[in-house]
């Protein structure tokens, strides 16, 4: 009884700590927590749906992802213009609703062909574009460098929990609908799509409970940036390289090596709970100087998982990879996003530009990496073999990711103390009252 009381008191203290943060940050977190129940369905089960109803044609899954990754930067571009006249909360909620529309469109197709899958992918890409473009700006605007570890730790905690629970429930639902004779697999996917739609509506309502500010400056399209931003774009390219695989590879590997959607949920549930707790603690108690260590550990876990998959290439190897991915993705994100936001903080003040200009440009770094990764996967599939592509492409991607560790270390060092000339005067950036300000440099 005493142990339960202690746990409840600790949980209550964490709740009060959450309430101690700014209201706009809390509303954004709650919105993202609700939408977190949608993302695992989009990430995994849409790909599984394509494979199930196209005789395991995983090249079609790759084309679907390529369509998504094409739609995202185009929507970022459109979003930049729309922000001049439309409230950011409206664009944000529209992006969430579009994900349900994309799934609905795919479920209504009589036959999954190339044109239908690609068009559905473009709609989903537009959904992600509106969601991530506005989410990134709101996260930047409602947080500071000191509380970003907590923000991304809590957000990633929920994303990790839902990436465990939702695949488990949805996988069970799809299999049970057939084995227990409720209805066919296609109808099961339609029911899941309806649930996704309801969740996107709820999250859209929540985001409108706060008045968020649009970017102040209107111009967001630039072609020349500081050298520091070039390093950040290099990190974005490597991150995109991994993203292209981590959306498609889990569903493809499981369906190819194991064979049903129920396994998707079961495998991801094995180590996820522990990971989620670790993530929350890292976000709660880690400091900005700890980000590089979290970043490096996540990448090393990723390499180990892909190596196991390449060596074993079996159901066991796929399980080891999935466990490694459950650890890698959140560890990488909890370090990467605060690093990115800090760079934008510094350069937006140094170059006196709209913060969205960097968010928009960063997406093209991700896009180049995603396209390169997917094209490499398709080339290996067509010109070598499907087995070779599934075994070794992930390992190649993981080893390339290790390059980002020294680059991230340089970026962090550079943003900790930035000095430059402004209007002929030596100035520096310094954190004052949780805000980054430009002040004269006293010799």
From TrEMBL:
Gene3D superfamilies: MFS general substrate transporter like domains (1.20.1250.20). GO terms for molecular function: transmembrane transporter activity. It comes from the Bacteria. Pfam families: MFS_1 (PF07690). Keywords: Membrane, Transmembrane, Transmembrane helix. The chain crosses the membrane at residues 27-50, 62-82, 89-108, 114-133, 154-175, 187-207, 228-258, 264-283, 292-312, 318-337, 358-380, 392-412. SUPFAM superfamilies: MFS general substrate transporter (SSF103473). InterPro entries: MFS, MFS_trans_sf, Sugar_transport-like. PANTHER family: INTEGRAL MEMBRANE TRANSPORT PROTEIN-RELATED (PTHR23526), MAJOR FACILITATOR SUPERFAMILY (MFS) PROFILE DOMAIN-CONTAINING PROTEIN (PTHR23526:SF2). This is MFS transporter. It comes from Labilibaculum euxinus. The lineage of its organism: Bacteria, Pseudomonadati, Bacteroidota, Bacteroidia, Marinilabiliales.
């Amino acid at each position: 009884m005493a142990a339960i009381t202690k746990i409840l008191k600790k949980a209550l203290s964490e709740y009060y700590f959450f309430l101690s943060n700014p209201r706009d940050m809390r509303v954004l977190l709650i919105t993202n927590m609700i939408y977190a129940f949608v993302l695992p369905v989009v990430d995994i089960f849409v790909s599984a749906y394509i494979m199930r109803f196209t005789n395991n044609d995983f090249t079609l899954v790759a084309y679907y992802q390529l369509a998504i990754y094409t739609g995202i930067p185009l929507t970022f571009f459109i979003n930049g213009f729309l922000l001049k006249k439309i409230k950011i909360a409206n664009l944000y909620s529209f992006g969430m609703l579009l994900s349900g529309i994309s799934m609905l469109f795919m479920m209504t197709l009589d036959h999954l062909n190339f044109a239908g899958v690609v068009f559905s992918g473009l709609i989903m890409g537009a959904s992600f574009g509106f969601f991530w473009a506005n989410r990134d700006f709101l996260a930047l605007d409602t947080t500071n460098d000191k509380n970003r570890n907590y923000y991304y730790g809590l957000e990633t905690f929920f994303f990790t929990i839902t990436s465990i629970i939702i695949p488990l429930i949805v996988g069970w639902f799809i299999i049970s609908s057939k084995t227990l004779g409720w209805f066919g697999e296609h109808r099961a996917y339609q029911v899941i799509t309806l649930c996704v739609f309801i969740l996107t509506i709820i999250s859209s309502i929540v985001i409108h409970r706060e008045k968020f500010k649009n970017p102040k400056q209107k111009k967001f399209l630039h072609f020349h940036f500081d050298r520091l931003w070039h390093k950040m774009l290099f990190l974005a390219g490597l991150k995109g390289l991994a993203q292209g695989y981590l959306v498609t590879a889990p569903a493809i590997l499981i369906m190819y090596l194991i064979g049903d959607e129920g396994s998707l949920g079961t495998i991801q549930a094995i180590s996820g709970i522990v990971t989620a707790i670790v993530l929350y603690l890292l976000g709660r108690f880690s400091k900005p100087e700890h980000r590089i260590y979290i970043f490096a550990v996540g990448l090393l876990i990723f390499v180990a998982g892909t190596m196991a998959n390449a060596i074993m290439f079996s159901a066991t190897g796929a399980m080891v990879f999935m466990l490694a991915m459950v650890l890698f993705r959140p560890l990488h994100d909890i370090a990467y996003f605060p690093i990115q936001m800090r760079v934008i903080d510094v350069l937006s003040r140094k170059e006196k530009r709209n913060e969205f200009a960097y968010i928009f440009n960063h997406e093209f770094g991700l896009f180049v990496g995603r396209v390169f990764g997917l094209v490499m996967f398709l080339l290996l599939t067509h010109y070598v073999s499907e087995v070779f592509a599934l075994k070794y492409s992930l390992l190649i991607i993981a080893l390339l990711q290790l390059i980002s560790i020294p680059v991230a270390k340089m970026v962090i060092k550079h943003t900790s103390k930035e000095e430059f000339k402004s209007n002929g005067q030596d100035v520096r950036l310094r954190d004052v009252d949780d805000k980054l300000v430009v002040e004269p440099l006293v010799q």
